[in-house]
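Appendix B. Worked example

We walk through a single record from start to finish. Start with the input: the chain for FBD domain-containing protein, Hordeum vulgare subsp. vulgare, length 486.
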Amino acid sequence: MNLRSGQRAGSSAPPRSSGGADRISALADELLLLVLARLRCVRTAARASVLSSRWRGLWTRLPSFVFRDVALPALAAVLHRVASDNVVSLSLLDIDVPQRDRSPSWAAPHGRVSSLLCAAARLSPERLVLALPWDAAAPHEKVELPRFQRATSITLSTPSLVILRARAVGQLSALTTLVLSGCTADALDDLVPRCPRLRVLRFSGTVACYTGITVDTIMVCSRSLQELVLNVEGHTRVRGIVVATPMLEQLTVASRVGDNLCVSVLAPMAGNVSWHCRYGSESPGLGSWTLERVSLVMSPPATRLAPVLQIQLLKHRDRFSDWLSMQDTFAGEVEKHLQMQVAADLSVFDLELHLAPLGHVYGALASFFLGIHRIRDAIHRLKVVLPEPKLHTDKVKCEEEYCGCEPDDDWTCQTITVPELEEVEIDGFQGDDHEFEFLEHLLRCAPMLTRVILRVSGENTGTNDAKVHDFSMEHPYVECHYVGHS
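Next comes the structure step. The output line below is what the pipeline stores for this chain.
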């Protein structure tokens, strides 16, 4: 057969040698385990067994296990297999159970989550991370947390609002970090006393409200705790927050609360505090103003920033309460949030009032807050925040008939003394006559007031220049700033 120059016959390539050495499988077990650990997934590491009998079962000796996309029924068997083969100390057990069914179904065997936790405890990991789908357990199912002897960190996410309880015997003596999400708050009463070395506690869930039982007081008592985060939501509102933590340095609370709230915070070393309580439709009110939210933010003493008390109020057309009879109740509800014992100095703070909707008279309301005992002698700076109207129709003026914005009597005749108030800012200033009346009243009550900031919205810039100019000329000792909204 004649071939052109450079052409070869159509024959197959020479066969590769099948007798080459498996250099990877010849490595020591320690090196093979490093290879498997790089896969960062137990399922993938287990599949490496098909490469060679040398790899078979080696994955069970990994120092950490990360399970992804493994169904809940199969996990217990897998963990049992690992517990029987594993001879090393497990540093991490990370399990994220996937959601299999979109429809609610509580036909899953009762106690499945407790069994899974028991299987995990037999591995005795140093760190446990367990994220469960919402259908892993029935709502308010009781789940037992076994004793993890070596665990220094436990993160448990249970969206089913389970009732988490510790085993009756033993402590979590090594635990320093506990993160709970989804369980009921009464778990803290049971778990925290069993953690003598706990440093960090983060909780996100709801109060306990199930058949015949309602536990609406959140209680955390610990001698070792240094960081506490409480995020409590749900239809049942918290009636009490009790914190007794002498070593606590950082406190964060965000909760839906009811009226007649009981607050007791004993954390003398806590310099970093973020406190947010959101009230409901039955919250205390003055006239038609209702208390929506009370926040208190305190920075570490080294920052030299004054604490900020932020109060949000909402005007309701369909609600009314008498000003005179409700003043003590309203003031008492606000003062509860100022009675906590923390490292920050609450004898000096700034007050922010957030009021909505726009257009209502607010001078009497702001003056009332300045007259509250724990506020009057401590406030250095007052800021009134009004919503910026997006449309002209957003600004609702007070109706001619009494709408509950202010009391029947002339509140401007009731002179109070605010000895430390130095600065006032009105964010959303409209230039209405009642606003200038409020400023005049403040100047009579606050002998140290030397700075006024009037921040206006874009559409109102320039419309009240003459009024502001006259005001500043009448009070030359006051530094007056009239600026557009930033």
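Two observations about the output. The chain is about 20% helix and 30% strand. The longest helix spans residues 72-85.
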